[in-house]
Amino acid sequence: MSATRSEIDADLAAWLEGQPVFFVSTAPLSAAGHVNCSPKGGSCLKVLGPRKVVYQEATGSGVETIAHLRENGRIVLMFCAFEGDPKIVRLHGRGEVIREGHQDYEGLHRLFPVRVSTRSYIQIDVTRISDSCGFGVPVMNFQAPRDILEKWCNSKGPAVISDYQRRKNARSIDGLPALEGDFAPPDVPPQALSGEEAE
Fold first, then answer.
1. Is a pLDDT exceeding 70 seen at residue 113?
2. Under a CB-based contact definition with an 8 Å cutoff, are residues 111 and 89 in contact?
3. Number of structural domains found in the chain
């Protein structure tokens, strides 16, 4: 069974915010481009209204979501109940990349824990809310969020992470602009990024 909803009510908002992981998918306009799907976790989602959500987006080696949103704005979030009653919820909508300097950045920044890993906030105007049975989703027990990324970012510091984003996140794998042009020339020693890099 599947159904659409007119809005995110209080019960659904609590359920969405309580999921330990959800999935984000975007795609470029080109039929030759790569569709992207990324997992998100660590209590990084907030429901802002009946048809608006935002999530705290972390630094990584890929930057597909940002590139796709800046090109065409299309996005879908999928949530699955891995515990309790089976359920799948999808939020289709139009996403906006909110980075430092944007008029909405500080207001969103106050809603989440301060994390060195934060690269942007992805704010979504939801155009379609649907749920389905989720009978095929396995039952799994959540143990704990991973802290590896945050430890890595904390060990490098904000200046080095900003330089990492400048070097690694300029364009998508298909060559679409992502963070290209967002940075002033960095003043970070090259050796600061030696060792394991974020994935």
1. yes
2. no
3. 1
